[in-house]
Amino acid sequence: MYNILICDDERDIVNALKIYLNDPNYTLFEAFDGREALQVVTEKDIHLVLLDIMMPEMDGIEAMVKIRERSNVPIILLTAKSEDSDKILGLTVGADDYITKPFNPVEVSARCKSQLRRYMQLGAGNPTPHLLRCGGIELDDAQKKVSLDGDEVALTPTEYEILKLLMRHPGQVFSPKEIYKKIWNDLPYGSENTVAVHIRHIREKLEINPAEPRYLKVVWGQGYKCEKLD
Predict the structure, then answer these.
(1) Domains of the chain
(2) What's the rounded Cα separation, in Å, for the pair 9 and 167?
(3) Are 172 and 225 contacting, i.e. CB atoms less than 8 angstroms apart?
(4) 141-196, pLDDT tens digit by residue?
(5) Contact criterion met (CB below 8 Å) for 135 and 182
(6) What CA–CA distances, in Å, run from 130 to 72, 79, 158, 186, 218?
């Protein structure tokens, strides 16, 4: 049973999403502004958040920042705009994915299932513990923890999966489309910006100087790799 929070200031949209996500395995919670969303996440064991950006009281971006202070629960942004700037801003501050209004019911269901599957896999543990290292970065896939020079670093589920992919294949270059397909299990439309924002966010958490990364390198025109380090 999964607990899903739907937050949008338009009740018709909340009701529509409840219809799209009508599944016996889902318990659905409602919120109509960012403050209510934060309260639900604080009080309930939420496994996924669908969060509108433009809302009164507290908008989705501010609410997401506050949620990220206490939880790595997957967050899918709901945006009425198609401009990349809104999506990039959301991804930069901690969103795992986004859906643009008007919604396609099949897409909503698929993206929710994808995020829930990845989140629960992270939390369920791995029967075969595996430790990955790249310089000062250590990824313990048994405990689902990442540390830098011995200090634990909090990554979102999507950031964790991207880092694990690159660390499992040191020196191998993955194009944004390849990363998007492997992590999102979706067609790579808009993959360049989406992946770039997540890579930048990982660098901000793990690199001393994100502008001159030591670990996560870009190979111009080709993609990204985790540098081979002893």
Answers:
(1) 2-124 (3.40.50.2300), 131-226 (1.10.10.10)
(2) 40
(3) yes
(4) 878 899 998 899 999 999 999 999 999 888 899 999 999 988 887 766 666 788 99
(5) no
(6) 21, 38, 19, 27, 26
What is the DSSP-derived secondary structure letter of residue 103? P
- For residue 200, the model assigns a pLDDT of 93
Query: What pLDDT does residue 124 have?
Result: 38
**Contact predicate 62/37, CB 8 Å:** no
CB hemisphere CA count around 64 (13 angstroms): 28
| CA distance readout (Å), 25 to 1, 96, 199 | 5, 22, 33
Question: What does the alpha-carbon distance between residue 50 and residue 81 come to, in Å, rounded to a whole number?
Answer: 16
Q: Residue 175: CB partners within 8 Å, gap ≥ 6?
A: 222, 223
- Strand partners for 50: 6, 76
- Residues of the chain with pLDDT below 70 are 81-84, 121-130, 187-191, 229-230
Whole-angstrom distance, CA of residue 106 vs CA of residue 85? 25
Give residue 157's pLDDT. 92
